[in-house]
Amino acid sequence: MMTRLAQLHREADGLALAIIASSAMPLLLLDGTLAVVAASKSFCDAFDIDPLSVPGRKLADLGHGEWNLPELRALLAAALAGHAEGSACEIELERLGHPTRRLALDMRRLDHGGRDTIRLTLAITDVTDVRAAERRAADLIHEKTMRLEELQHRVANSLQIVASVLMLSARRAQSEEAQTHLRDAHQRVMSIAAVQRHLATSTRNRVKLRSYLIELCTNLGASMIRDHKQITIEVQVDDSVTTADVSVSLGLIVTELVINALKHAFPGQRRGTITIGYQSRGSAWTLSVADTGVSMSAEAAKPPGLGTGILEALARRLDAGIRTEAGDPGTIVSIEHA
User: For residues 208 and 280, is the Cβ–Cβ distance under 8 A?
Assistant: First the structure.
């Protein structure tokens, strides 16, 4: 029985030796004491080791002692104990007269029944160039991200300047109609500037709609509502996140509808509230602007002239429809993407 078992062990070792010898990648077969049973020719070639000097030597003694690494011994001991088998491990190998290389190790425990017959395969892959390329790619992405953030800051600042010029022009304009158009243009620019500010602090070109629309409506109220006890703007938006392009369109729609409501829904000293709502489910979403002012017809609820054209163009761009209905009191204008 023992003779047959020993024969099986010899056959297994012979098969392992044949596999090691024919391996195209650096590969070692170690025993339970971390002595080298066999090494592939590719290992010897890659690390300038005489193939005849390898069998029977401890791994730590190969070459000029560069394999005598505490972290490598710990990894191999764990693999022999069955704790780190097959795990992805990497080490830095420093060889005399050669640049430091980063090596990925794959360790496999071969157990034939007792400690004297435990074997460990150690496959070695040089990943130095791969890791260097990954670092370069990461650095490039970081650099592009920083440049994009800087560009977004500059665009936001430029839009703020344009908005300031428009407001200054509105104050100097003699015609009331010109003042109105300039103020409306100012609000449109401000809505885009708000998106840019959010993009500068967001990731992956994504905008959180709630914080964006709150900021937008705060700016609209500050510049267009004289008595905040008379008219208030509320934002009721879920946790939706969308792209910069979509958020710009949504912001411009809100700007047009809020401006129109402030101009027409609260004649005289009428008090009331404008509520901006947004809810989404999957790819479907609804944006609404509702007021508690005087009820308006479907046409009157839309911004007149240029504003109507902007609203309809933005709705088409979003592949959405426009629906107007009477509130209780007031008017509700909804932009729906089904």
Answer: no
Q: For each successive 10 residues of the chain (338 residues), what is the average pLDDT?
A: 50 64 84 90 91 89 92 89 73 91 90 68 92 92 80 76 81 84 80 72 76 88 82 94 88 89 86 94 94 77 69 92 89 92
Q: How far is CA 79 from CA 12, 61, 119, in A?
A: 20, 20, 10
Per CATH, the number for 132-337 is 3.30.565.10
Among left, alpha and beta (phi > 0; psi -120 to 50; other), residue 319 is left
CA distance 44 to 314: 68
Within 8 A by CB and 6+ apart from 142, the residues are none
Which CATH fold would you assign to the domain 2-126?
A: Beta-Lactamase (3.30.450)
Q: What is the pLDDT of residues 207-230, one digit of tens each?
A: 889 998 998 888 888 877 888 889
Q: Are both 2-126 and 132-337 of the same fold?
A: no
Q: Where are the domains of the chain?
A: 2-126, 132-337
